[in-house]
Amino acid sequence: METIIQVMDNITKGTETRYRDIRSAPRRFPNGLPVRAIGYIPVKRDWVRRTFDRLCFAFILRGDGEYRWGQRVWPVRSPCAFIGYPGAYLEYGPKEAWEELYINFVKELAGAVEARGLLALDRPVWQIHDAAAIRRRALELLDALRDVDSFGRVDRIDRLCEWLIMDSLISAASPPLGERDRAVQAVRAYLEQHYREPVDPDELALEHGLSPSDFRRRWAAMMGLAPGQFLGRLRIRDACRLLVETDKGIGEIARAVGYADPLYFSRRFRQITGETATCYRGRHQ
């Protein structure tokens, strides 16, 4: 999950565990579920054994382990999610290591979270069937944490957290993907992590046992846009970030995000964003 690590490195550099407390940030458009804190642990090896004083949603993105509440034990197989309920003594942790993203709310909000259908104590652990969708939502959330002081940013983070929880529950209620659809998800996950490199989606599909025609048909049904358009949007989104956060030249940014021809990059940038890269930088930097 290299992309998530890169995002979180920009938030709190120099520590293995990334953590952001936003409980005191002012809300401009409150949704009633202000998030207390968000954390990301790329390689978690230790077990947790304690009574919770807050409401926690943990998303296990990679790795396996166990979750114990009272006399019951649930297997933890990524991707999945589980809760830490206020007042509950829990024990959980990986067999060797796992990757975890977690969201905390103050304990007083447990009732409000449950009233919205986002909490079910009879099912504290649930499996996520659409891993790629959850990964995209997690990346969107972590990207929003780059600048919590911007107007309305914390309100957006609150909603992204709520949507992440909701998406995981929707995924749990949906039937598991078939083998071919999982192959499409695997191609998408690869593109999300290696979009800066020269990649051919059709070749990736063949490596996962799909013909180009079957792959494109299934991709269109799941994504709503062609693989090349998806790849281009990933690159342009990264270019937007570099334009705002760095002083690199347009050509250098084009090459950094995977375009060998700066002129082609400029055309694609304008097609997707509706403005030139220079105008975008001037308006947002």
Task: Give an overview in words.
The chain has 285 residues and is α+β, with helices and mostly antiparallel strands. The protein has three domains: 2-173, Sandwich (Jelly Rolls); 179-224; 229-284, Arc Repressor Mutant, subunit A, CATH 1.10.10.60. 46% of the residues lie in helices and 21% in strands. It is built from eleven helices and ten strands. The strands form two sheets. A six-stranded antiparallel sheet has the order 1-2-9-4-7-10, covered by helices on one side. The protein has a four-stranded antiparallel sheet with strand order 3-8-5-6, with no helix packed on it. The longest helix is centred in the middle third of the chain and has 21 residues, at 153-173. The two termini are 28 Å apart.
Task: Summarize the model shown.
Helix content is 46%, strand content 21%. With 285 residues, it is α+β, with helices and mostly antiparallel strands.
Keywords:
285 residues, six-stranded antiparallel β-sheet, four-stranded antiparallel β-sheet, disordered N terminus, 3 domains, 46% helix, alpha+beta, Jelly Rolls, single chain, Arc Repressor Mutant, subunit A
Give me the secondary-structure topology.
Layout: H1 2-9, E1 18-21, E2 37-44, E3 48-51, E4 54-62, E5 64-69, E6 72-77, E7 80-84, E8 89-94, E9 98-106, H2 110-115, E10 125-127, H3 131-144, H4 153-173, H5 179-194, H6 201-207, H7 212-223, H8 227-245, H9 250-256, H10 262-273, H11 277-284
Antiparallel strand pairs: 1-2, 2-9, 3-8, 4-7, 4-9, 5-6, 5-8, 7-10
